[in-house]
Design a protein that fits this description.
Keywords: Membrane, Transmembrane, Transmembrane helix. Helices cover about 85% and strands about 0% of the residues. It has one domain. It starts with a helix and ends with a helix. It is mainly alpha-helical. It is built from 4 helices and no strands.
């Protein structure tokens, strides 16, 4: 009877270990994928803005304060209008997803850490 109990406990621990490691791998790989795609989209946006010479609108910042004050609002509106809106929306969505994923990971960090410690103690004691 004792061997049967140990066998069942080992199977349960193995299932929990696989579940925990799978959860960690999936969350980390999703975070890396989202970060890489966000950085790619950001670089595409910057490249589009460079091709359009949109950053030239901010050359007036080298002038006097009076000129900056007069032209800042107009130049900012023109810059916002030249942004590629669909890519900006995708980038904002990806960044919000990354923030949500980091929130969930930090919220569940103690649970995951405790599971890993228990698995380590069970297999390597």
């Amino acid at each position: 009877m004792k061997k049967l109990e140990e066998k069942i406990i080992k199977k349960i621990y193995r299932m929990e270990a696989e579940k925990t490691i799978g959860q960690i791998i999936s969350e980390v790989s999703l975070a890396i994928l989202l970060f890489l795609s966000s950085s790619f989209i950001f670089s595409v946006i910057v490249e589009i803005l460079n091709e359009q010479a949109s950053f030239d609108l901010f050359d007036f910042l080298r002038d006097d304060f009076e000129i900056i004050r007069e032209n800042f609002f107009n130049n900012s509106l023109i810059f916002v209008q030249e942004l590629p809106q669909p890519l900006i929306y995708i980038l904002i969505g990806l960044l919000l997803t990354i923030v949500w994923l980091l929130y969930v990971f930090t919220k569940n960090f103690n649970k995951i850490k405790n599971k890993l410690v228990l698995i380590y103690k069970f297999w390597f004691k």
